[in-house]
Amino acid sequence: MKRPVFLTVWLVLMSVGAVFSVYSYTVGSYAITQTFPDFPSWAITVYAGLSIIDVIAVAMLWMWKKMGFYLVVGFAVLAAVLNIMIMGGAGIVSTVIGFVGVGILYWAMKPVWGQFK
Question: Which terms are listed as keywords in the entry (predicted)?
Fold first, then answer.
């Protein structure tokens, strides 16, 4: 199975982003609470858990598993709900960026969708 170059590049970017998110919401959670004092502490735990699921989803995509795509979509939907719930209007920007990322992933996967199991 040959992976298209753009899909490979996009998966590398997603991998780096997912690992950075896990780091940010675990090791860097203190910086988040200092920068955004009104940010609820329960949300950091939820975002950390979602970020771990995102790492798993991207790993599944590397292994040609369709379930990885569905997890990424689910992650984006849950993150969108949380972003808007916690940040209000400011959360809309990050929500749109998240959905654009899913759209790019879909576009990159579409030519080789049949190779995913």
Answer: Membrane, Transmembrane, Transmembrane helix
